Amino acid sequence: MKALVAVKRVVDYNVKVRVKTDGSDVDIGNVKMSMNPFDEIAVEEAVRLKEAGKISEIVAISMGEKKCEDTLRTALAMGADRAIHVETDESLSPLTVAKLLKAVAEKEQPSLYLLGKQAIDDDANQTAQMLAALLNAPQGTFAAKVELNDNEVIVTREIDGGTETLALNLPAVLSSDLRLNEPRFVKLPNLMAAKKKPLEKTNPEQLGVAVENRLQTVKYAEPKTRQAGEKVASVAELVAKLKAAKAI
Ligand code: AMP
Fold first, then answer.
1. Which whole-number Å values give the CA distances from 132 to 22, 64, 66, 120, in the listed order?
2. Which of 10, 20, 168, 247 is 20–30 Å from 88 (CA)?
3. In this structure, is residue 73 part of a structural domain?
4. Is there an atom of ligand 1 within 6 Å of 118 CB?
5. Per the domain annotation, does 239 fall within a domain?
6. Is residue 71 part of a domain?
């Protein structure tokens, strides 16, 4: 059984992204880039399933500029067997990414698709759902627990106020939530060994997918700065202030 795991190269979660002064975009020149944290969780889950003997091959895939190779090498160091880089300098919408994944899947025929629940740069939370729709495959988004059997996958999903458990026929599309697992730390020897693992290159044209952007960004803005708080000396003073502000 094969798993296809999508890993996106995004601005590292520790970086505070600034908006350009003209509001046309965000300034990410020279900032640290990393694998999308939810995708690390997706890779980790695939590796655990392989270690448990449930799947035999993990293929990591990333779409975007040349530097996505670094992200794929990290996935290989974590335990993926081989990687596919769909190289393009165009900006990719979730729908285009889903179409590219579908095009690759036609050749790869995976039983399980593992994605992150959202990319922390665009926060779209759309790709897994769109891919499932394009493939006409069942989806288990926001996965918190995954149990893989021969013909089905049992997924416990995070939903408002609790969890929901679904049994999905294979092939199925899953998206990882935070509680699914804690990704392993990548050790240097594994990174070195990952350099020898196969990394295949392709591009949207070869896959027959037109990169079209149906989204137009109107403007970017910094979130409003929060007003400073105020310390009060007593409960009575707090109540008086709340009354004066007509909050109670
Ligand atoms: P999004 O729908 O943009 O929030 O992304 C959800 C998930 O889709 C991510 O966590 C990745 O697993 C996958 N994904 C999105 N864009 C890419 C990309 N350019 N390359 C690889 N995977 C991607």
1. 38, 21, 27, 21
2. 20
3. yes
4. yes
5. no
6. yes
CB 53 within 8 A of CB 1: no
pLDDT in tens, 226-246: 889 889 999 999 999 999 999
Ligand 1 pocket check for 204: Cβ under 6 Å: no
Answer for the pair 145, 155: CB distance below 8 angstroms, yes or no. Answer: yes
The CATH number of residue 63's host domain is: 3.40.50.620
89 Cα to the center of ligand 1, angstroms: 16
* Parent domain of 206: 2-223
CB-based contacts of 37, cutoff 8 Å, min separation 6: 13, 116, 120
Average pLDDT taken over every residue of the chain: 96
Do 71 and 191 form a contact (C-beta atoms < 8 A)?
no
Say if ligand 1 is within 6 A of residue 129 CB: no
Task: Tell me how far the alpha carbon of residue 148 lies from the centroid of ligand 1, in angstroms.
Answer: 23
**Spacing, Cα 40 to ligand 1 middle (Å):** 12
Q: Which of 40, 58, 97, 130 best tests ligand 1's pocket when mutated (most atoms within 8 Å of CB)?
A: 97
Please tell me the distance between residue 194's alpha carbon and the centre of ligand 1 in angstroms.
Answer: 22
Please name the helix (run of DSSP H) or strand (run of DSSP E) that holds residue 27, with its range, or none. strand 26-27
End-to-end CA distance of the chain: 61
Residue 229 included in any domain: no
3-state secondary structure of 15: coil
Q: Look at the chain and report how many structural domains it folds into.
A: 1
Q: Give the Å distance between the CA of 97 and the centre of ligand 1.
A: 7
Ligand 1 pocket member 34 (CB < 6 A):
no
pLDDT tens digit sequence for 50-86? 999 999 999 999 999 999 999 999 999 999 999 999 9
